[in-house]
Amino acid sequence: MSGLREAWLRFKMCFTAYLFLFMAAYLLLLRHPLSTPTIMPVTGLDRAIPFAPWSLVLYLSLWFYIVTVPSMVWDLREAKPYLAQVTLLSLLGFAVFLLWPTAVPTPDIDWNEHPSVAFLKSVDAAGNACPSLHAAFAVLTAFWLARLLRHLGAGPWLHALSLLWCLGILYSTLATKQHLALDLYAGAALGAAVALLGPQPRFLSPSA
């Protein structure tokens, strides 16, 4: 048990270091794009989903959603492929941000009336729009949780809860007006592609 606990502590330290490096790289690209960002177009779905300040809770819950995976991973056969997929997703997203900076148009909203969302806008500006890494990590996490829950023999209600949580986060990317539909589509596709085509944990493979 002591060896398992030590491995878990090492994994947590590695994951914490990864999060720090991820945020540093993300903010660097956000604040210092190499060229003028392309403004993403507004679609019918963007116009159909109104601004919902309460959805900020769902938007921020991504970080708790992501942590559910490393909290359930103990074996290095799981941890290494997971970190590899997370790293691959990040590098692909950052490469797009570097080569093709994008931003969302400024919505006609008085942010002074919504200070909590205004704070998000001040920290996470309108850049790094497409693909939405918020959507990408939510979808990647949903795939990993589906595999982990199936491996652990979890009931269908836990699978449904994970799916609903993921869908809620995806909705929040549009409802907070932090992203547009095209950002969402691209991010979800990126997360699914990495989850399906990236390094797979052996005992969690579909054939296991």
Structure explained in plain terms:
It is a single chain. With 208 residues, this protein is mainly α. The protein has one domain (2-204). The protein has nine helices and two strands. Helix 5 (76-99) packs antiparallel against helix 7 (133-151), helix 7 (133-151) runs antiparallel to helix 8 and helix 7 packs parallel to helix 9. The radius of gyration is 18 Å and the shape is globular.
Label this structure with key terms.
mainly alpha, 9 helices, 2 strands, 67% helix, globular, disordered C terminus
Blueprint (SSEs and pairs):
Blueprint: H1 2-31, E1 38-39, H2 44-48, H3 56-60, H4 62-72, H5 76-99, E2 102-103, H6 115-123, H7 133-151, H8 156-175, H9 181-197
Parallel strand pairs: 1-2
What is the number of domains? Answer: 1
Sketch the topology as an H/E string, one letter per element: HEHHHHEHHHH
Distance between the termini: 25 Å
Number of helices: 9
Unreliable stretches: 204-208
**Structural class designation:** mainly alpha
**Biggest sheet, open or closed, and with what strands and sense?**
2 strands, parallel
Shape, principal axes of CA atoms: globular
Strand line-up in the sheet with most strands: 1-2
Count of β-strands = 2
Average of pLDDT: 85
What's the short version?
This protein is mostly helical and 208 residues long. The protein has helices spanning 2-31, 44-48, 56-60, 62-72, 76-99, 115-123, 133-151, 156-175, 181-197; strands spanning 38-39, 102-103. It has one domain.
